[in-house]
Amino acid sequence: MFDVDTYLKHLGHTGTLDPTADNLRELHRRHMMTVPFDNSRNAAKGLAIWDDVDAGRDVFFQSLITEGRGGICHELSGLFRALLDELGYDVTVISSGVRGAGDQFGPDLEHMLSLVRLDGEEWLVDVGFAGPSFTEPVRISADVQSQNGFDYRVVTDGAHLVLERRPADGEWKAVYRFTLQERELSEWKAIASGENDDPFWHWAGEMIRAGTLIYGRVYETGQLLLVGRRYLRAEDGRDQARVLAKTDEYEAVVRHVLRQDV
Fold first, then answer.
1. What is the similarity comment for this entry (predicted)?
2. Which of 80, 83, 181, 215 is most buried by its number of CB atoms within 10 A?
């Protein structure tokens, strides 16, 4: 069963529990350092990954905290959102379309994340993104916000807001676009049932069914991401990528990302 004290102990959080911006940053960072992204249990499901989007916080807690496993976006975000709600934060579900090939964005329901309203400001909260992104919440503002040598900002593009990221030696690139519209979990259930026939979903489902495994975790000074055999280390404002051709090296990186070598 979901238990706040057990959850916080798992994250290693020992500070105050007041719903402040500082605590939000600390909880977000610790969550991403402790609970990895891991789609290995879901890689064969295709769009059926959304079948259990409404499984509830007790199910997610059992898997991610009690069993110490990693998860995918709706599991990670759903569990963290439950924690923030228990601690008194004003938190809602939103969605985004991720930038893909050719700088095109996927459908608005491609990814699940959260919005926190705090002290007159709005914050993007996302502990479940399978890509290099922020490790602490980002204010929804065009002001540049720096983390681990990378810059972030949120700009307006027509009806959407766009999260952008810039490495120390690079240019601004979109991560995903979103709106502040509050979403219902039933909208993702409709995708799993086939009611949403957006062709981008079929493409994404085929990629998942192809067996692409994705693992990711944050550490003190950066972020690790493994997509198939492509290994990305984002640290000190630089993205360093290479292909892990040797099986033993690949397996060692998987264990490291999943904290199985601790």
1. Belongs to the arylamine N-acetyltransferase family.
2. 80
For the segment 188-231, what is each residue's pLDDT rounded down to a tens digit?
888 766 666 666 655 555 555 566 899 999 998 899 999 999 99
Cα–Cα distance for residue pair 221/57, rounded to 1 Å: 30
* Active-site annotation, residues: 73, 111, 126
What is the arrangement of strands in the sheet containing 150-157, beginning at the earlier edge strand? Answer: 138-139, 121-125, 111-118, 90-98, 173-178, 160-166, 150-157, 145-147
Residues in contact with 203: Cβ distance below 8 Å, sequence separation at least 6, in sequence order: none
Q: Which two tokens stand for residue 128?
A: 């479940």
pLDDT tens, 76-104?
999 999 999 999 999 999 999 999 878 88
Q: DSSP E strands: which ranges in the chain?
A: 37-38, 90-98, 111-118, 121-125, 138-139, 145-147, 150-157, 160-166, 173-178, 214-219, 222-227, 230-235, 238-243
